[in-house]
Design brief:
The protein has about 110 residues and is mainly alpha-helical. About 75% of the residues lie in helices and about 0% in strands. The longest helix is centred in the middle third of the chain and has 31 residues. The radius of gyration is 15 Å and the shape is elongated. The two termini are about 15 Å apart.
Length: about 110
């Protein structure tokens, strides 16, 4: 079970590091606390976690465009940054599929 929920935990820890770097500490603390909803075995907990993963993916897309625009304006290379941050965004969206596995459906009564 731990290996199944590991991507969820890693996504939120990565998001917490992102918010910490941006000095948005309230969102950093929220990002650290969201994985604890995995202990709450209800449908609403899974919905909250999945919604937060979607919001995290959107935040990574926003961040990608923001930093790419800055690099383009400064005539610096930006493609590698876009690939890395785009991959992180895709990872966040793909992590939602964890909740489609049999064990997670049984755990959260989906």
């Amino acid at each position: 079970m731990f290996l199944i929920i590991l991507p969820v935990i890693l996504c939120f820890l990565l998001l917490a590091a992102h918010f910490g770097r941006a000095q948005i500490f309230i969102l950093q603390y929220v990002s650290i606390l969201i994985p604890f909803l995995l202990f709450w075995k209800t449908k609403i907990a899974s919905i909250i976690i999945q919604a937060c993963l979607v919001l995290a993916g959107i935040e990574w897309i926003r961040t990608t465009f923001y930093y790419a625009r800055i690099r383009i304006e400064n005539e610096e290379p930006w493609l590698r940054l876009a690939i890395i941050l785009g991959s992180v965004a895709i990872l966040n969206f793909a992590t939602i599929l964890v909740f489609r596995t049999k064990s997670m459906k049984a755990r959260f009564k989906l």
